[in-house]
Write a structure and sequence with these properties.
The protein is of the alpha/beta class and 155 residues long. It has helices spanning 2-8, 23-32, 47-56, 71-78, 108-119, 122-135, 141-154, and strands spanning 14-19, 38-43, 60-62, 83-86, 100-103.
Length: 155
């Protein structure tokens, strides 16, 4: 269904799946090779290559069911890449419609619809990209360290 939503909305994009190699992803890649979806897997890539991918990507999808602070989303946004994330990503990191999109489900159709909206509207993409870059400043390690120092000195 993900592929159909993108196709119907006129999105022509390459999907790159990044992470650890596993049977599920391998099966997905093999299945989609016989479809219109341009999909590729990159396994266990070095951090500098990951940063390069973020900077070249138009969007990053993170349909995570379990997530803490979501460094992956923060790193992508620091590169100016808007994100489409699950509700498990803290709202402090991703604000719906401001620096990315949030979806309340794990339905691939919901992610595809948000992705199509983002990729088909250059003005929206530019706004979210700019906001993404600015919004990650709150996670700067110096700022965070100063906040911890304030907490410690108050205690």
């Amino acid at each position: 269904e993900f592929r159909r939503v993108l196709f119907r909305s006129g999105v022509d994009a390459k999907l790159i799946v990044v992470g650890a190699k596993n049977d599920y992803v391998e099966g997905l890649i093999q299945h989609e090779k016989h479809s219109n979806l341009n999909i590729e897997a990159k396994y266990n890539i070095p951090h500098n290559a990951l940063i390069d991918l973020y900077s070249r990507a138009k969007a990053m999808l993170l349909p995570s069911k379990y997530e803490g602070l979501a460094y992956v989303a923060i790193e992508a946004m620091a590169s100016g890449t808007p994100v489409v994330v699950s509700a498990q990503i803290p709202t402090e990191a991703v604000t719906n419609g401001y620096n990315g999109f949030r979806t309340e489900t794990y339905n691939p159709t919901d992610y595809a619809e948000k992705l199509a909206l983002l990729l088909n509207d250059e003005k929206l993409w530019s706004k979210l990209s700019k906001n993404a870059t600015q919004s990650v400043n709150q996670f700067d390690h110096i700022k965070v360290a100063k906040e911890y120092e304030k907490l410690i000195t108050r205690a």
